[in-house]
Each structure stands twice: as structure tokens, then as C-alpha cells.
Amino acid sequence: MTQIALSNLGKKFGSFTALAQMNLTIGDGEFVALLGPSGCGKSTTMNMIAGMVDPTEGDIRFDDRSILDVPMSRRGVGFVFQNYAIFTHMSVRENLAYGLRAQGVSASERNRRVNAMADLLQLSPMLDRRAAGLSVNILQRLAIGRSAVVEPAIFLLDEPLSNVDAAFRSVMRSELKALQRQFSQTLVYVTHDQLEAMTMADRIAVMDHGKLLQVGTPLEIYNNPQDVFVARFIGSPGMNILEGTIASSDEGKLVDLASTGRSAPLALSDRAASQGLPEKVLFGFRPEQVNPDPNGTMALPVNFVERIGARTILHLGGDGIEAKAVLDNQIAMPSIGDILRFSIDPKMVRLFDPVSGIAIGGDI
Amino acid sequence: MNGVSVKKADIAVLPQDNAGSEEKRLGFWLTLPAQCLVLFIAVFPILMQLYISMTDWSPLDGIPWYRAYELWIGFINYTDLASDSRFWAAMWRTFLVMIVCVPIQFLLGLGLAVLFVDEFPGKRWFYSTLLIPMMVVPAVAGYMFFLLFQSGGPVNDLLSLFSASPVKIAWLSDPSLALVAVMAADIWQWTPLMFLILLAGMISVPQDQQMAAVLLGASWGRRFFTIVLPRMKTIIIIALAIRTIEIFKIFDTLYIMTGGGPGVATETISVYIYKVTQQDLIWGYVAAIALAILIVLSVISAIAISKMSKGANAR
Amino acid sequence: MRRSLPFELLRYAMILLIIAISLVPTLWMLSMAFKPIAEWSASGAALTWWPENPTLDNFRFIFGQSSSELIVSLERTAARPIVASLLAAIVGTLIAMTAGTAAAYGLSRFGKGNNLPLALIQLRLFPPMAVMIPLMIMWSFLGLIDNWFGLAVVYGIVTLPFAFWLMKTFFDDMPREIEDAALVEGCTRLRVFAVITLPMMRPALASSALFVFIMNWSDYLIALLLTTRDWVTIPVYMTSLSSSMTGQLYGAKAALGLIAAIPPVILGIAIQKHLVRGLTLGALKE
């Protein structure tokens, strides 16, 4: 039961900066996912929390106590490795008892806790089997149980589902989430798969190139990306971003998208209105928000039609413009070469600064 | 002889698979030279050895070897062997060298591997330097130690630093010390081999398992004894088997240092066979000894081979 | 992981200590090789760790040039044994590598259920001493005693297992797709082997050949058994130096030992990446 605070955390490997200026507080019992493409610094962050890597800047605190001088064997961190790192030369029982034995827990107490953990994780029938050759979901449970049995302050999970085939992942995801509820433990989960982050985490921290870009609940991240990278990264497919210029009309300000057309008048938040708008903006909208409309103010040619069952993805664009639209199958589907006319609900439009990539005006 | 018999490559041809049969034939021709050489040095000589060991033949008798049957004595050589005290003493000495040298080499090699398993500045240089002894020609190594252990040599000179009067130990001519000097040479030359193999094994122990153990609170020692060592089991067995077998072959270093002497004080099994061959010239008897040794070694090597192929498959 | 400074210092201290000990024998012989005759057997207080008057006389001596101090003249110089060692080791290496590479390729590509690999391990494990008698009988029957070629053939056979296993693991590591592509193009197997596989294997062949050469060069026993006079190798010649009536020629032997020791040490360090693979017959790769 621990709160983790990362302040100005940074790591340089020689001249390469793996992580810079990371500030994040993870609440007691919270499930936080560190999400980003490979090389974004998420694993470095996690390894520093565990003590496998020493930071070059900043501090890590568990419940307001700096742990930088605490060796990794004393940090009380339960770590689940990507491939689970099960001790395959031992039995399931020996795996579960390993941490207790290392910490000098008495034999009777050890037995009691191992048996209790095995019951909880439904590992009891295979306690005396060798850990080699167990199936992957049992290995996952064993890896979590092996860490949980020593009652760590926090859990760190490093892409635990990346070696699992796609069909099995949803099963593993729900199992993991259920386990976290059982332990109600602070948990940091590293992944590059947004689906895992979105479905399991309380909050998501999106990272790229060694920087923390945004922290928020899955819905916040999805609805109000604070950064154009987050906007494109989250969602499948990600948010469409078109270059445009601010123009004025009788009904208010709107975005001129050149050959694509022009947007409906913007529904600006008070903050955006008071801040004022730059001349050029990035115009963002979710593919799901594309609303086919014969009277729409925007139009793009259809390049490709991708049918994925219940929904269809249209690849739109030309002349250096690229966008996607996700439509339900009920409506009449345009075909390749057609021009799709559409409109976007002004409330669903997100604007970004083309230079800094930061969202304009926060919530619109 | 387990495994020594060489079967010809299976050239049975599946009629419907023409390309396959051509490949098989090519495979047969490619292995033929090696097969012939093995036949030439292993299978044929061993049969010949078996034949001669049943006779009282000696090159001095003036009968060519293929007519050795004229001196047929059956199993007499083998029964003689059982009561040959010089043979058993040589066996015992070989065994003694083995039980002293192999564990010391193993522990030193393991300790060095622990020192070298992490990255640190200068590692490559230290590593290369440490390997030098095993590259030195064994006969030359024998001469090096012959020089070191002279009564006026550097070993005594170093020992004199710790004693009031100059040390004048006649290492190589003292029957009780000569074997110590021989063992020192073996340990010097072959610890690097242990180190090399054990380090390769230690590096291949998965890093995340070691980290997992540490994160669970394991001390360095617990991690080493419960994760690292058990995971190196196969490699340790291979390393020990190689050294154990090599001890039976120990000859060059020893023969140049002491010639097996003084008297027979450092006569190990290889030196004994050599001496009986060169000096006593009773070759029928030598053939019997050699075959007996071969059988002993085959048992050890059978174990080593099964471990080696397991090790190769695991990779 | 954070490492403590005391531990690092301890690591260096222990490594340096062990290296120092392990270098003493080699350095002592090195020193001996450059000592003049007066310092050879100096002992006790007179013992010097480094030659006080370093000289090349020992090297000159073994090549037949006597000096004012070493007035003994040698019956035979070291030149011929060096040639013998080189010739036998190189030809032995060629034999082992040719037969070993062919067999390794054959078994790596189309060998299933063949006993040869096991037989070769066995061959490596049993002591040459064990087949000494038949070998000597066969070689004298064939007139190959004291003949560099006879020695080279034995070297080739003794080191064949190393050549075979090294090359087999290298062939096993090589992706087959490259060969398959050429086969599909209509090349014959032999052509693929000659034009594609062998050139790709050049570094592997070089390392294996050097490894095998070191083993052949290091032999003493086989040469002791199979050569008598004309084709004795360096180590055999070296021991004969002391049996002359002049007594121990310490410095001369050390100089010769140095000549024998240098090539394998340099070559061994050059191929150290593959030493584990070779010494464990491919069971371990680094």
C-alpha cells in the first residue's frame, strides 16, 4: 500500500537521453499504465522504480521516502517480467516460496502463505509440478503469485502480455484486472498496446522520446489528447490531423482546410476564446466522428475501403492529405474513387498548435 | 566400445524421391573421407590392439605383427594386469592428480567467472591475458615449470622471502614433492579452460531470472546458489568431464618436468604406458593396458557425451 | 544496479593478483631466454628476475652460431625442427579441415541418423596413448616413421573431431534459405557449396583452421613416438638439447620454448571468441 512519486526523474546513457523531467504521482492502490512506442522511456522508468537502473537526475519516493539508496532487494517491489522469469528448474511451490525463504520467513508461516496464495490463484493442483512446461496463463499467475506472496509495496508489470498470442490476450487481460482487484495493490503496467492500457488502467501515462506527454484516465486521454502525438497514438485508427488556417465567418471562427473544404463554425471553450487562436492550426477529429452528409462542408476522395465486420474503415485523402473514417455498415457505403462529403460535430473538433503540437485551449 | 563402430551412411533410396536420393548420395560422399580416417585410426587399430593384447608379441621377437598369433597367450596379459602393482600405483597417482587438480581448477575457474561476469573497464584485456597459460604448448609449459621448481629457482626464491634461511627445496627430485609440482603445473595450465567454459555458462544464465530473485529479496549468495549454479549444471558437468578425461591423458608437461620420476614418484598412467612401450618393449602387454584404460574412459565419456548433446540441443 | 566501490576495488585486486601469478612461469622463461650463460643457473642471492646483461646469444646458439661463452656446437640446429613442426602442423590442419568440413557440410545439410558425429567425439576423448601400439606398428609397416607426412596424417586424424564439430556448428548456424534460393535457380549442390557456402564460411573456416593448427602445433607425444631424428618437431628437439653431454642448456631451451609458445598464444587470442565452441566440440557457443 504505497504511493509512488517520481519527481524530475531523468536518465542519460552517455549522450543519449532515455528519460527526462518525468513527474508522476501514482496513488495508493492505483493501476497506472505507462504507454508508448518502444524506446519511449517507459521501461527505463520502470527499471528505475525497481532499482535495476539508477537515475541520473531526480528522485523516486515511496510514501514520501526517497528510495534511491535502497538496494533493489529491499525495495519491496514485485516485478513481473515480460517472459515471467519463472525459475523453471524449481517446482511451482519452490517458486512461490522463493521470496519468503529469501526473507527468512519461518517454515510454517511460509507454508501457510504459499498455500493461501496457491488457493487464491488456483495453483494448488500443480504445486509440486516442475515449473518448466506450464501453460502461459499459469505462468502469468505464478509470476504474479510469486511476487504477491511477499506482499510487496507495489507491483510493476513489464509488458506481460507481449508473448501471448492475440486470441488469448483478452482472457489474460481480464484475469490480470481481476487479480489486481483482489490484491488492491499499487500497480504500474508498462505496455505499447493501447488496448491493454485502455481496458485495464485507472490512469494512463502516455510517453514518447523520453518524455511524459499526458496523464489521465483512459477516457480523458481518448477524448482530450493534450498533444498531437497522443491524439494520433490513441485510438485505432488514431485521430485525423489536418493542417488548416483560422478563418472568420458570420457565425464565428472556423478552420479553412484548403482543398478539403472548411469546418463548421468552431465551438470554442472560454479558455481558447480568451487565449486567442494562432493563424495556422492542426485540425483534429476522430475517424468515428466523420459524419457522411451530402450537405457537409468537407469532402475527400475515397482511396480504399477496408471492411472489418461490423464497421468499415475508409481511407481518404490525396495531395498529401490523409484521413480515415470509421462508419457503421448500415449506411450506404461509398466506393473507391467516390468523393465523400461529410461534416464533423463542432464539439468533437480538437485543435493543436502546429509548432508545439500542444492542444489549444484544453477542453473545447 | 560404445559408439565407436561406424555405420556407413544410409544410402537406401526412396524410389519416388529422386532429388532426395541425390542429396543422400552427396551426403555419403562428403562424409566418406572422415569416415575412412576414423576407420583408419580408431576402428582398425582397436581391433589390432585387441589381437595383439592376446599375444606375448614384442617388436624385438623378429616376427611381423600379423604373425603374432604364434605367441598366442589368451587372457594372460589381462590377468597379469590385475596383479601389476606398478600399474595400480600409476592408476592411483592419476586418480590423486584428478581429485586434487579438477576441484581446484573448478573452484578457481568459477571464482574467476564470478569476477568476470559483469562488464567493467579493462575486462577484455584481463580476459585475454588470463587465457595465455592454456595456449602455451604443454611441452613448453612443462619446461617452464621445470625451470621454476629448480632448487635455485624462483619458487624457492619466493619462499625464502617468508623464511629466515634461504629455502633449498629440491622439488623435482624429492619423491613426495615432485607430484605437487606436477599438480601445480596442471592447475596453472588448465584453470583458464575451466574459467572459459564456466564463464560462457554463467553469461548464458538468463538475466531476468537473476533479477527476479534479487527483487524477491535474495542476497548475492542465495541468487548464486539457487539460480546461477543450478542453471549452469549441464555446463559444469561438461567442464568437469573434459578435465577429468584430460587428466588421464596428462603426459607432455609431466614427462618433461620429471620424466615420471624420481623413481616412479610421478608416474601416471600415460607415462607408465609410454615407459612400458619404449623401454620394456612388451607390446602385447601394453596393448592390454591400453584397452583396459579405453574401457574406463569410455564409461566417463559416455556420460559426457550424453550431457554434451543435451547441452547442444538446449541451445 | 548500483555496485559498491569496495567491491570494484576487490575485483581488480583479485584479478591482478591472479594474472600476476599466472604470468610468472611465462615471464620467467622469457627472462631466461635472454640471459647469458653466467646467469642461467645463478641461484639464491645471485638469482636475478630479469637478465642483467640481456643477450640474443641463446637464439643465435640454437640456430648454430656459437659465441664466446657458448662454445658448444650443436649437432643439429633448430631450423629443421621448426620446419618439421610447421610442415606437420599445417598439412595436418589441411587434412583435418578438408575431411572435417566436407563431413560437417554433409551431415549439417543431409545427415540424419549417422553415427559419425558420435564416433568423432569418442575419438577426441580417448587418449592417443591408447592406440599407440597399433599406430606404431602400422606406421612402421607403411614406412611412415620419422616422416613429416606420416606425422601430419596422424595430426589430421587426431584433430579431425575439432574441425568437424566446429564447422558443423558454423554450418548449422548458417541460414539455409540462401542456399535454397540458389538451388531453386538451378545450381547444383556442389556449385552452391563452392560458390555460395564456402565464401560465406570464410571467417568460420579461418577460425577453425587456426584452432586446429594450435592443437597440432602443441603436440609432443605423437611426435615423440613417430619421429626419431630427421623430422623431430620443436618440443622433441627441445628435450634432446639437454641430453647432450654439455648438461642443461637452460637459456637455449628457453629461447626455443619461446619460439614454440608464441604462435599459439597469438593465434589463440585472435580466435578467443570461438575457443569455447571448439574446446567443448560445439556443445557451447559463446
Overview in brief:
The complex is a heterotrimer of chains A (364), B (315) and C (286). Chain A is of the alpha+beta class.
Q: In sequence order, what are the helices and strands of chain C, one letter per element?
A: HHHHHHHHHHHHHH
Number of domains of chain A: 2
Computed CA radius of gyration of chain C, to the nearest angstrom? 24 Å
Shape of chain A: elongated
Order of helices and strands of chain A: EEEHEEEHHHEHEHEEHHEEHEEEEEEE
Helix content of chain C: 55-70%
The percent range for strand residues of chain C is: under 5%
- What structural class is derived from the secondary structure elements of chain A? alpha+beta
Please bin the fraction of helical residues of chain A: 10-25%
- Number of distinct helices of chain A: 9
Q: What value does the average pLDDT of chain A take? A: 87
- Strand fraction of chain A: 25-35%
CATH homologous superfamily placement of the largest domain in chain A:
P-loop containing nucleotide triphosphate hydrolases
Span from first to last CA of chain A? Answer: 37 Å
User: Which strand order spans the largest sheet of chain A, edge to edge or round the barrel?
Assistant: 6-7-8-3-9-10
Largest sheet of chain A: 6 strands, mixed
| CATH architecture annotation of the largest domain in chain A | 3-Layer(aba) Sandwich
What does this structure look like?
The complex is a heterotrimer of chains A (364), B (315) and C (286). Helix content of chain A is 25%, strand content 32%. Chain A has helices at 42-50, 92-102, 107-120, 136-148, 166-183, 194-200, 218-223, 228-233, 270-275; strands at 4-13, 16-26, 31-35, 57-62, 65-66, 77-80, 154-158, 186-191, 203-208, 211-216, 240-249, 252-256, 280-285, 291-292, 298-307, 311-318, 321-328, 339-343, 350-352. Chain A is elongated. The mean pLDDT of chain A is 87. Chain B has 315 residues and is mainly alpha-helical. Chain B has a domain at 84-281: MetI-like fold. The radius of gyration of chain B is 25 Å and the shape is globular. By secondary structure, chain C is mainly alpha-helical. Chains in contact: A-B, A-C, B-C. The interface between B and C is large, with 113 and 99 residues.
